[in-house]
Write a structure and sequence with these properties.
Oligomer: heterodimer
CATH architecture of chain A: Orthogonal Bundle
Distance between the termini of chain B: 15 Å
CATH topology of chain B: ABC transporter involved in vitamin B12 uptake, BtuC
Largest interface: A-B, 44 and 49 residues
Radius of gyration of chain B: 20 Å
Strand order of the largest sheet of chain A: 1-2
Number of strands of chain B: 2
CATH class of chain A: Mainly Alpha
CATH topology of chain A: ABC transporter involved in vitamin B12 uptake, BtuC
Largest sheet of chain A: 2 strands, antiparallel
Number of helices of chain B: 14
Order of helices and strands of chain B: HHHHHHEEHHHHHHHH
Number of strands of chain A: 2
Helix content of chain B: over 70%
Shape of chain B: globular
Largest sheet of chain B: 2 strands, antiparallel
Helix content of chain A: over 70%
Structural class of chain B: mainly alpha
Number of domains of chain A: 1
CATH class of chain B: Mainly Alpha
Chain lengths: 293, 318
């Protein structure tokens, strides 16, 4: 392998992790836009999605069926959480909201521990096949699936929010909850929808990487934290910002690991986050909105 | 009755002093459990100064816990300094970091502040993992000696128990003092309405910075005590999950009351001792308890105790 093919290799791995970060960030942004809370339980949906799929395929279910069932299950769990818990605490302070989602994440992680135990599991790839060679770099076929699924999901989100009535209602609700409810939009339904979407996408992020990573009940923390970073740098409320920063984050990480230092790549990434927060709190892609009184 | 209300802290002191020979049964293990509890009481109370009084959210309190622990660990294990000197150096370093990042970070609000403190926690932990030659990296730092004072080593957990709880008592007392001082009142004013506080001529940024440094100093002390008790440090003990745990103690016990977070820490750290047969259920149980407290008892365990006391004695707590 020459220098150039190394760079290509880093690009592929950056794109792979970037897809996961982008999906996690998008799932966080969708929930934030509508419920105005950052969900610390999003990593648990990542785990639930991945491990459900591993279990279903190991029970002999064909991959497409396992895929669909896992998404449905994770979405249902997310909707249930919103319906039973989040709705009760809508008016609490930010500190309480954060701790509530932490409590939910503890409970879900505990549940995952009871169901799946402490062992890590890996799922079979979506399609069998040998690694592909591109410009001297090797590419797992699963990586194509990850990127393909990510693009499809992003397209679906765009279509939903721009072209469907329900999506436009959700945007209205994110813009102005009172105004939206005066126009006859059920804000409760919209919040439920947002949570279902968010948990489904979070689960999807776990499912697409399940063939590449060993995942166990506690594996959701790091993807979630990286999702936080992408979301915060993207400006908390911007889906496009979250996607772009998600991919950028994956690439920056992959190139710093490859070219600079594998030990300090996370230090660098978190330092970038701290600097962006301090110097441009509205994010690199968010509209700057002054909150001073 | 009035005497009990006035001198109840003497009762607490007696309970702490009598624990090892009575309930503790002079067992090093049982005193050890209480050492952990004490360390977490310090952490929870120090975070309460920041979050409960000043309303500044932190999802990264373990950063200062880590700095204190590693300062003590490295200085005593590798350079052979006295534990007291190492503890003070840890405090100096923690205070310095808090001072340096305080002003820009504390200007942030709500989620932005939460994310920034989380980032700080991760920066410290990844640095600890990365600087392997100094900290032992991911495989940990070994051979930290027991705490000693003027040449007298506290290598018996029962003796160390008294050191830790003496400090816990001082920290709680000092924090109560802070909460009732003009400084604490100012913080509460900033918490409830920063704009109003500003119009009264309060330099909000300076007060926030000071309470941040104070809570970092306490957390650093907790870290030093932890390092000498464990004798071994690994970066995992200081991750965001630890910060989240401290946060949970605050809300479980009743945020903003000093006593509450202390109770929360005691409860959450003692719970595993009673549920150890159901270890796999512990996470789920923690989550459910916290959900129930948040939804039905927003004032936490301390709130429940207070209303119980009101019912028994028939006086209003002030």
């Amino acid at each position: 392998m020459n220098e150039f093919s190394h760079l290509i290799q880093f690009f592929f791995s950056g794109l792979t992790t970037g897809s996961v970060y982008a999906l996690m960030a998008v799932s966080l942004v969708i929930v934030y836009k509508v419920s105005l809370l950052i969900c610390f339980a999003q990593g648990e949906f990542f785990v639930i999605g991945a491990l459900t799929m591993v279990t279903l395929t190991s029970k002999g279910l064909p991959m497409p069926a396992a895929f669909v069932l896992s998404i449905i299950l994770s979405t249902a769990v997310g909707a249930l959480v919103e319906r039973v818990l989040i709705r009760r605490i809508r008016d609490m302070s930010v500190g309480n909201l954060i701790v509530m989602t932490i409590a939910i994440s503890l409970a879900l992680r505990g549940l995952a521990l009871l169901i799946w135990g402490k062992e890590s599991a890996v799922s079979p790839p979506f399609t069998p096949g040998k690694p592909i060679h591109v410009l001297g770099a090797t590419l797992q076929p699963q990586v194509l699936w990850i990127i393909g699924v990510t693009i499809l999901v992003l397209f679906l989100i765009w279509f939903f929010f721009e072209k469907t009535k329900a999506g436009i209602a959700m945007r209205a609700c994110a813009e102005n909850r009172l105004g939206a409810s005066l126009m006859g939009i059920s804000t409760q339904k919209v919040a439920l929808f947002a949570w279902a979407w968010g948990s489904g996408i979070g689960a999807l992020a776990g499912m697409v990487v399940a063939p590449l990573l060993f995942i166990q009940y506690g594996s959701g923390v790091m993807p979630m934290v990286k999702g936080f970073i992408a979301m915060s740098i993207g400006g908390l409320e911007s889906i496009a910002g979250a996607v772009i920063t998600g991919f950028l984050l994956g690439l920056v990480e992959s190139y710093t690991i490859g070219l600079i230092s594998s030990q300090f790549s996370d230090t660098i990434v978190f330092t970038i986050l701290l600097f962006v927060l301090v110097f441009k709190p509205s994010g690199l892609f968010g509209a700057s909105r002054s909150r001073e009184v | 009755m009035r005497h009990i209300q006035r001198y109840w802290w003497l009762l607490v002191l007696a309970l702490i002093a009598l624990y090892p020979p009575t309930l503790g049964g002079m067992s090093p293990y049982r005193s050890g459990v209480l050492i952990f509890v004490g360390i977490y009481v310090i952490l929870a109370v120090s975070l309460d100064l920041l979050m409960g009084l000043a309303g500044l959210i932190s999802v990264g309190h373990a950063a200062f816990f880590a700095i204190g622990a590693y300062a003590s660990g490295i200085l005593t294990a590798k350079y052979g300094t006295s534990p007291l000197f190492a503890l003070l150096m840890g405090m100096l370093l923690s205070g310095g970091v808090a001072w340096a990042v305080g002003r820009p970070v504390l200007a942030l609000k709500e989620y932005y502040l939460a994310m920034a403190t989380l980032a700080l926690n991760e920066i410290i932990v990844t640095l600890i993992i990365g600087l392997q030659w100094l900290t032992g990296g991911a495989s940990g730092l070994r051979d930290i000696p027991a705490f000693s004072l003027l040449g007298f080593p506290f290598d018996n957990p029962i003796h160390y128990y008294y050191v830790v709880w003496a400090i816990v008592f001082l920290v709680v007392l000092a924090s109560l003092g802070v909460a009732r001082s003009p400084f604490g009142r100012t913080l509460i004013a900033i918490h409830s309405d920063e704009t109003a506080a500003k119009t009264f001529g309060i330099d909000c940024a300076r007060y926030k910075g000071r309470v941040y440094i104070l809570s970092a100093l306490y957390a650093s002390v907790a870290g030093s005590l932890f390092a000498h008790y464990m004798g071994f440090l690994a970066p995992d003990d200081f991750s965001v999950l630890t910060s989240i745990n401290i946060l949970v103690m605050l809300f479980l016990g009743g945020i903003g009351t000093i006593y509450g977070p202390a109770l929360g820490a005691i409860f959450l750290k003692l719970l595993p001792e009673f549920t150890y047969q159901f270890q796999d259920y512990e996470l789920l149980l923690n989550g459910i308890i916290l959900i129930v407290v948040l939804v039905f008892m927003p004032k936490g365990l301390f709130g429940i105790l207070m209303s119980l006391k009101d019912r028994l004695i028939g006086t209003r707590a002030t």
